[in-house]
Amino acid sequence: QVQLVESGAGLVQAGGSLKLSCAASGRTISTYALGWFRQAPGKEREFVAALSQSGGRTGYADTVKGRFTISKDNAKNTVYLQMNSLKPEDTAVYYCAARSSAAISSTVYYTSPTAYHYWGQGTQVTVSS
User: What distance in Å separates the CA atoms of residue 34 and residue 29, rounded to the nearest whole number?
Assistant: First the structure.
């Protein structure tokens, strides 16, 4: 019921920053829990960051804590991933995801990809050394 489109692909040097955007259409993101995942060549898709439906709780993979920040703008119907202090090992295709909620403002966030109902097409992030 919601469509997600990522943008912000880029090639950056190690230590640099990049901000990814995920624009939603069809439904307001205020009714979804949101997440970011990534998949590097030859590796499984892994959890990066998650945001509760309420927008009040976040969760991060240990590998990105302190460097990445997930946020959203309900007015723009967009979720973001701010990535700082990028490392070559951050190189991957990044995906945004949404999980529908029957709640009004749930404070639960999800770290498993199987918990999400909708996915974007992915956007490539490459970090050079």
Answer: 8
Residues sharing a CB contact under 8 Å with residue 44, sequence separation 6 or more, in sequence order: none
Q: Which helix (H) or strand (E) holds 51?
A: strand 46-51
pLDDT at 1: 83
Tokens describing residue 34: 């949101």
Cβ-based neighbour number of residue 100 at 10 Å? 14
81's tokens? 């991933």
Question: DSSP 3-state assignment of 88?
Answer: helix
Compute the distance between CA of residue 110 and CA of residue 127 in angstroms, rounded to an integer. Answer: 27
| Buried-exposed string 65-75: b where 16+ CB fall within 10 A, e elsewhere | eeebbbebeee
Structure tokens at 97: 């995801």
pLDDT digit string (tens) for 16-64? 999 999 999 999 999 999 999 999 999 999 999 999 999 999 999 999 9
